[in-house]
Structure formats: C-alpha cells, structure tokens
Design a protein that fits this description.
The complex is a heterodimer of chains A (357) and B (123).
Chain A lengths: L7 E5 L3 H13 L3 E5 L2 H11 L3 E5 L7 H10 L11 E6 L5 H7 L3 E5 L3 H40 L4 E6 L4 E4 L1 H7 L3 H4 L11 H14 L2 E10 L5 E12 L5 E10 L12 H35 L6 H26 L5 E5 L2 E4 L6
Parallel strand pairs in A: 1-2, 1-3, 3-4, 4-5
Antiparallel strand pairs in A: 6-7, 6-10, 8-9, 9-10, 11-12
Chain B lengths: L5 E5 L3 H11 L5 E5 L2 H10 L4 E5 L1 E2 L2 E2 H11 L4 E6 L9 E3 L6 E4 L4 H11 L3
Parallel strand pairs in B: 1-2, 1-3, 3-6, 6-8
Antiparallel strand pairs in B: 4-5, 7-8
The chains are: A alpha/beta (357), B alpha/beta (123).
Chain lengths: 357, 123
C-alpha cells in the first residue's frame, strides 16, 4: 500500500512553523510534499506541479482562501488540477463551512493540529474524494449511454415500432407517428393489424413466419394512415427475445417506398436493428465493469475494522447502495421488451425505465 | 491445506484483478492473474490451477472458449465465467448442468465469490 509515495501534496500557509510541521509529517509518511507561503506562489506551484491534493490556509498574505480556490476551479490554465480535493485550514471556526463546501472545497480542518492528524485527515479526504469521483464518472456514463440510445431511436428517419407477442404496439418513435398520422398515445396499446391493409390475416401470417425464422428483412406491405391513405412500405421485422431466448414481441423498422416505385428499398435497416442490440450490450459491459472496483473497494473498506468513523462507514454504505441501484438499472435496460416513454421536454419523449418491463 | 490450492483470475482490467487478489490474499491460496486468454493458457500449461474465474470478453478471444479449453485439459479445475451482460441477480451464482461451469454476473458480491471458492475447493 505504499502507493502514496507517488502522491504529491501542496501545502500553502504563511506560518513557517506549520509549513515545517506539514512538510515533515507528509515526508515521513512517504508523500511528496511542496510548501508555499502565499497564494500567488501557491497557484504557480499548483499549475506547474499538478499535485493530487491542495491544502490552503484561509489567511494568506495576498489572497483569501475563496479567491485561491475560485482561480483553481474556474481558470482554464488550472484544468489539470481542477478536480483534485481542496482542503481549507481555518482558525477558531471563523469560516462559514456551508459556503465553503458550496464553493467546491472538499473539507475544512481547524487549526491548531499536529502533523500526524493532518496526514490522517488528508488520507481520509483522498479516499472519499476518489470514491466520489468514480461514482460521478459512472453516473455520467449511464446518462450518456441512455441519452445516446434515446436520441438514436427518436432521431431515426425510419419508423420504429415494437409489439408484444399478441401484436399490440408497445412503443413507436416520432417517425412512426408521422408515417401513420397518429400521435403516440393513439398508437401504443392498439393492435398493429389495425394499420395493415390486409388486417388480422397479415398479422397471423407474420407471426407464423417469425415463429420459424426470427428475422424478416425487406418485407413489403401496405399500411393505412389516419387519413385512410394507403402507403407502401418496406420493413425489417425481427423477433425480440429476452435473456433466456423467449420471444417477447417483435420490432419493425419501416420506410415508405411509394406505390409506383416498389423495387426501391433500403437493405440497411436490419443492420440498424443489430446496432441497437449491440449498443444495449455495450452499455451493460461499459457500466458493470467499472462497478466492480467501485463496489469491491467500498465493500473492502466496510469490512476493515480499522475504519471506525461511523460517518465514513455511512458514506460507504450510501456508495454501495447507489452502485447496486445503477446495476439494477443497467440490468433492467438490457431486458426491456415493453418500453414505455414519458414526456421529457416539450416535444421530446424519454424512456420511462420504471414503467417499462 | 490451502497451500496446495491455486486460483487463476482472467480479466483485461487491472483494477478488477486487483479486487480479486485483495479478496483472496490472506486466504492462503496461490494466486495467478492473466489479462488475456493466451496469458491464461501459458500459466495453466506451467501450473495447472484448481479454480479459474474468467471474464466472458477477453481481448484475444472469449472466456467461454478458454474455459472449454481448460475443461478438456484439466477437467477437475473449477470454472467460473463472469460478465457485465448476464441476467443474474447480485449475490447469485448459476451453474450449467451440462458442463459444470459456474456463472456470476458483474459486479459481484465479494462474499458470494469467497463462498463459491471455499465451497468448491472444499475448504
């Protein structure tokens, strides 16, 4: 566990006695410690040396602690240290802690302190900061992946519909609403055969085909719109199966081809469906793998009898609980065969994970 | 007794291997790690292992192919396949009755893994 040897700590304080105490304590514990006496030198050292943690006294000769940290967090030339934990040293509790935390400080430590307690405090801050950063990264990945899937389906120029095993529409995208001339609410819950020119006969024929072969690319048929117009389409239809291989319904990707131009069709639609499935697998892989070290490390720390601080243990339990929630969400996303959407912003819809099944 | 037992973990992510090594470090087993199927096969050729846990997706092949290879050469080795894309609840272990391979979904519960090793290696 001597990894700390590579960790660089920047300590800024006008008081030379404290600087010496900090320098000795960190060096004795294997850290690389740099000290400065004022804010200007502190900023310059931070930019040049890229420390993993910055400790600054609230009473610097030239800058306030607030001014110092605002520069670190906001200026583009400090990009490499903008996410490191920042610790403020306070005098007799004169600092408004709530304000300090809202400014982005990771922790406050009251003076006076002894060298050993400073090192232990910084070690605690580094551990909790690391876990916090990993959790944030994980959430960002989930949101990015979810947004990507939704945007991909909703921005498709082709109509995408899903049905359950009985042929009842469970989801449709905006292009499907435009193609058929009905709003989402009027399509979901209706039998898809209602929109086939050949009605239920065609649905039975399709179901029979899909029960033998799970894919039906380049299927040409005629749909009836809300204005009773007949539109010729080319569709790629596939069975949707759950993790156990059981058929949960069907997915259709449709494109209008025009009655007089029946031979024109796009063979790439089934490829696009494959991309949707591949993306769902990638989302699970990309999120569940980083969850292993997050959950594993949190479980390890909770099992460590040396960790007696109940507040730290509570925080770790929060991490475990939320990591398991993320895992439940990814698992549910992968198994959704009856997607339900809800309004996200005006004119935009999003997948309702709770309501989907 | 445990000194005779050896475990091999295969995953292309170092941080995942680190968790597994930390979990079994003080348990008295001989521990081996590999970040690819080829590396894993090299280790097994030199030191047959009693237990192998492999990720499904490896940079140079699939974990299930690796486990099939091991089953042929060392049928007594306990084989566990893990992946982030499995439909298994947290803390659950599944077993394929045909070939005896165990399945654990990522992320795993550390205690479940420890229990699985100890049950299968008879500790």
């Amino acid at each position: 566990m001597k990894r700390k040897a590579s960790k660089k700590i920047l300590y800024i304080d006008r008081d030379s006695r404290y600087r010496k105490t900090a320098l000795k304590a960190f060096q004795d514990d294997g850290y690389d410690c740099l000290t400065c006496r004022d804010g200007k030198n502190g900023l310059e050292t931070a930019r040049r040396e890229n420390p993993q943690c910055i400790i600054v006294d609230s009473q610097l000769p030239d800058l306030s602690g607030e001014e110092f940290f605002t520069a670190i967090r906001t200026r583009s030339d400090f990009r490499s240290v903008k996410d490191v934990p920042l610790i403020l040293l306070t005098h007799n509790g004169e600092i408004d802690r709530l304000k300090m935390y809202s400014l982005g400080f990771s922790a406050c430590l009251s003076k006076p302190f002894v060298g050993r307690s400073l090192v232990e405090f910084v070690e605690d801050v580094l551990v909790s900061h690391q876990v916090k950063m990993e959790e944030m990264t994980c959430w960002e990945r989930i949101h990015e992946a979810k947004d990507f899937l939704e945007i991909m389906v909703e921005s498709s120029a082709d109509a995408i519909l899903t049905t359950d095993v009985k042929g009842v529409i469970t989801y449709c995208n905006r292009a499907a609403e435009e193609l058929l001339g009905y709003p989402f609410e009027d399509l979901v819950g209706k039998r898809v055969s209602k929109f086939f020119l050949q009605g239920a006969t065609e649905l039975i024929r399709l179901s029979t085909y899909l029960s033998r072969s799970s894919k039906l690319p380049n299927y040409k048929t005629v749909l009836v719109t809300s204005k009773n117009e007949h539109i010729h389409i080319n569709a790629s239809i596939s069975s949707m199966r759950n993790g156990e291989g059981r058929v949960m319904g069907a997915l259709g990707i449709c494109k209008e081809i025009g009655g007089d131009n029946f031979s024109e069709y796009d063979v790439n639609k089934s490829d696009r469906l494959a991309t949707v499935v591949e993306t769902a697998i990638a989302v699970n892989h990309a999120i569940n793998n980083p969850l292993v070290p997050i959950l594993g490390n949190a479980q390890f720390m909770l099992q460590d009898e040396r960790l007696v601080d109940e507040d730290m243990r509570r925080r770790l339990r929060v991490i475990v609980k939320n990591a398991l929630r993320i895992r439940d969400i990814t698992q549910k996303l992968a198994n959704i065969t009856r997607p339900v959407t809800k309004e996200y912003l005006k004119g935009t819809r999003m997948l309702d994970i709770e309501a989907s099944s | 007794m445990k000194d005779n037992k050896s475990l091999l973990f295969v995953d292309d992510e170092e941080e995942i291997l680190e968790i597994l090594v930390d979990l079994f470090t003080d348990e008295g087993y001989q521990l081996h790690t590999a970040t690819s199927a080829v590396q894993a096969k090299n280790i097994i050729d030199k030191h047959p292992v009693d237990f192998i846990l492999s990720d499904l997706r490896l940079p140079d092949g699939s974990g299930s192919e690796l486990l099939n290879h091991i089953q042929e050469k060392h049928p007594k080795t306990v084989r566990v396949l893990t992946s982030g894309y499995m439909d298994l609840q947290f803390g659950r272990v599944a077993v394929d009755r045909k070939n005896g391979t165990f399945y654990v979904s990522k992320p795993w519960d550390l205690m479940t893994l420890k229990q699985l090793v100890s049950d299968q290696l008879g500790q």
